[in-house]
Amino acid sequence: MTLKKRIAITVAGLMTSERLAARRRRWHELARRLKRRPHVVHYFHEIQDPYSLLAALALPALAARRGVVIEPHLVPPPPAWAAPERALLEAYGRRDAAALAGHYGLAVPDLTAPLDPAAAAAGNIGLATAIAQGRFVENVAAITAAAWAGETLGVVGGADPAPLLVAGAKLRDELGHYLGATFHYGGEWYWGIDRLHYLESRLDQLDARGPGPSPHYPRPRLRLPETLRGRLAGRELELFFSFRSPYSYIVLPRAFALADHYGARLRLRFVLPMVTRGLPVPLAKRLYIVRDTKREASSEGLPFGRIADPLGRPVERGLAVLAHALSLGDDKGRAFALSFLQGVFAEGIDAGEDAGLRQLIERAGLDAGPAFTAVADPAWRATAEENRMAMVGEGLWGVPSLRFGTISTWGQDRLWLIEDAMIKAAESA
């Protein structure tokens, strides 16, 4: 392994170190107390983003916590580098936000169509005025919902949102993020109500509690009702994933559990990483993904952090072996997929070197000789492209994505949506 790769693995381990994260949190809390400051949560709101509407609905409960102050910022849509396949992203976001609102019982207007630009402009005037009047938390959800409902009446004599949008985008960039519906507290980012439970738990530990339950939006877990075990024999659950996606690593054990519990066949459909498909993943995005994956991995009890970036040759060699493993049976494919992803994202194994790849192959129960022979076979590329086209045909573009029947979704944190569909199918089986 090269010195450069060894250094990169060490740096990744430091970035994801729970001990260092705890130390940073302690220093932040000490500084806050010495300065006698409240718990200041920076919130970045993008009116065109449907996830911001959901986050806005969560703000009053967050602001009601003891000693918590919400500092609001208006932001424009993310830059082009942060929103590859923007049309697909926006269409999917509206669909996904509506499903997420239903899951948490939140009342939102119809999100089928994009937000009208005139309504967005009027809404931003209303939001800027609410900030000027110190009433953002109380009014943000109603103003944003009205914009999504198509209201275009501006606020007469309202505040100009333009300088606020510029300032919000600048601060967001300086702090290291790129999306709306985001919360920043004490050096850490929390995106949308999906990650708000991490912030709420952190505030709970600091005795910054409020009325009602905590967290308000807990992390969904698999339900796996015993009465429905094995009822979906003959059905198929598809998982689209990449060997460079850390989220693909942490979804695998739960995808295995879903398929096995309900008796469905798990079809592993690998695709090439976004970068090799011409879609950029800049530093700010990579840093957030790594740190967010660490939290999610810890929640699932999975090791994560010693990362040997498999981009390029390691991914290509790994996919060639995976295609070979799948030809031997689904179990062999599963074993190698998990071995590879755990190796490169948790154990610092360089799959670009023969010794590293051999280790990943052999612990998956594969014969190294035929597996290394398969590395020279380019047939896997056609399969990867076929899988990519199937994924895009579902209105999806990123990994991991899943499909069961007519339901498809993007993200390891949407397994509850897939399980809902599987439960309905199992109940009627």
Your description of this structure?
It is built from 16 helices and eight strands. With 429 residues, the chain is an alpha/beta fold. The protein has two domains: 38-205, 3-Layer(aba) Sandwich (Glutaredoxin), CATH 3.40.30; 226-427, Glutaredoxin. The strands form two sheets. Strands 2-1-3-4 form a four-stranded mixed sheet, sandwiched between helices. The longest helix has 19 residues, at 86-104.
User: Which parts are unreliable, with pLDDT below 50 for 5 consecutive residues or more?
Assistant: none
Strand order of the largest sheet: 2-1-3-4
- State the shape: globular
| Helix content estimate | 40-55%
Strand content: 5-15%
Q: Mean pLDDT score, rounded?
A: 94
Descriptors:
54% helix, 429 residues, 16 helices, alpha/beta, 4-stranded mixed β-sheet, 8 strands, globular
Produce a short descriptive summary.
By secondary structure, this protein is α/β, with parallel strands linked by helices.
In terms of topology, how is this protein built?
Blueprint: H1 3-15, H2 18-34, E1 39-45, H3 50-63, E2 68-74, H4 86-104, H5 117-132, H6 136-148, H7 162-175, E3 182-185, E4 188-191, H8 192-205, E5 236-241, H9 246-262, E6 265-270, H10 283-299, H11 313-328, H12 330-346, H13 354-363, H14 368-375, H15 380-393, E7 401-404, E8 407-410, H16 415-427
Parallel strand pairs: 1-2, 5-6
Antiparallel strand pairs: 1-3, 3-4, 5-7, 7-8
